[in-house]
Write a structure and sequence with these properties.
Blueprint: E1 5-12, H1 25-28, H2 34-46, H3 51-59, E2 61-68, H4 79-98, E3 104-106, E4 108-109, H5 115-127, E5 134-137, E6 140-142, E7 148-150, H6 158-167, E8 170-174, H7 201-215, H8 218-221, E9 226-229, H9 230-234, H10 240-247, H11 250-253, H12 262-266, E10 270-273, H13 280-290, E11 295-296, H14 306-315, H15 320-335
GO molecular function, one term: carboxy-lyase activity
Family: Belongs to the metallo-dependent hydrolases superfamily.
Organism: Cudoniella acicularis
Length: 341
């Protein structure tokens, strides 16, 4: 096929992971009949080579980077089960990609219970399975009834970040739904469930994690680490001036754990994508704020529609060179994809 766009945040589910989807149904689509809705949703997530590929052909998407849908391994509180889930998902997805490597690539699912094990599985996925990086769905659920939350900005995760730097592959930070303990009536979202999901809670929650990693010192210890953040950086580019203004403040500068401010890391370590955020003015702002070379195209299939994403993209009034960079060349460079620029 002729050169088209490269979409880098496109979800699938493996057959072994289908059982885990039902617990998120009421949050994904409140008010609908769970059995019917999940059946349609499962079909869209399972499909790779049929309607998904046809929509790519019809709309001009040359290539998709596929990844296990949220919450994936991060939603499994049992370390043994989460590790098994990662291995099974990665084996399955690499097998599907091999059926049509000219059109599909993959990002590895990772259990983040243990940093050394996560590093080991990432290395296996990249070196043996031919994957182009990894994807994590915000925090790792841990503990009894999954009530614990593990974030990846502590020194515990240094072995993982060391491996990320060694392999020189990106890690995609993706959102996830709140755990059930956060949805009790007396909690923040308990009586405000309309705020859950992609519209509000996803970017509020994941932006915290991204800010935490950027300011933790990890990117100073491992300056070669590359992070990719969808949905136009989960709102962070629009807050960079103020976030930097305060982390650079004399009251905070001497005690902050990072050497530099957020703008530095967003222009040296972080890349953002257009997944599920088809706004021309917002993309132009981000290009101006962090640079053209740090912005990549994504759709967010199947949660967003390929046709809608591509129609927006085709109407975008950037120069041909700018569109070529954001739409394909940046992705080829960042993920080291085996495609011609």
């Amino acid at each position: 096929m002729a050169k088209g766009t490269i979409a880098v945040e496109e979800a699938i589910i493996d057959p072994a992971g289908l059982a885990s989807l039902s617990q998120w149904q009421s949050l994904l689509s409140p008010g609908n009949t769970p059995k019917l809705t999940m059946s349609a949703h499962e079909t869209r997530l399972l499909d790779i080579h049929d309607k998904r590929l046809q929509s790519m052909d019809d709309e001009g998407v040359e290539y998709m980077l596929l990844s296990l849908t949220s919450p994936g391994c991060q939603g499994e509180a049992d370390p043994v089960k989460a590790a098994k889930m990662a291995v099974e998902a990665n084996d399955y997805l690499s097998g599907e990609v091999k059926k049509n490597p000219a059109r599909f690539g993959a990002l590895a699912a990772l259990s983040m219970h243990d940093a050394d094990e996560a590093a080991k599985e990432l290395k296996r996925a990249v070196k043996e399975l031919g994957m182009f990086g990894g994807l994590v769905n915000d925090f790792q659920s841990t503990g009894l009834e999954g009530a614990g939350k593990e974030y990846f900005d502590t020194e515990k995760y240094d072995p993982f970040w060391a491996m990320v730097q060694e392999l020189d592959v990106p890690i995609y930070f993706h959102p996830r739904y709140r755990i059930k303990q956060d949805l009790e009536p007396e909690t923040q979202y308990g009586v405000r469930k309309h705020l859950l999901g992609a519209g509000v809670s996803f970017h509020l929650d994941l932006s915290f994690h991204v800010y935490a990693v950027c300011s933790s010192g990890i990117l100073d210890r491992y300056p070669g680490v590359k992070l990719v953040v969808g949905h136009l950086g989960e709102g962070i580019p629009f807050n960079l001036w103020r976030a930097c203004h305060w982390i650079n403040h004399p009251f905070k500068r001497g005690t902050r754990p990072c050497k530099n401010d957020y703008k530095y890391y967003f222009t040296n370590n972080v890349f953002i994508t257009t997944s599920g955020f088809f706004s021309t003015s917002a993309l132009k702002f981000c290009i101006n704020e962090i640079g053209l070379e740090r912005c990549l195209y994504a759709i967010d299939t199947p949660y967003e529609n390929v046709k809608e994403g591509q129609e927006w993209w085709k109407s975008l009034d950037l120069s041909p060179e700018q569109k070529n960079l954001v739409g394909r060349r940046n992705a080829i460079r960042v993920f080291k994809l085996p495609l011609e620029e």
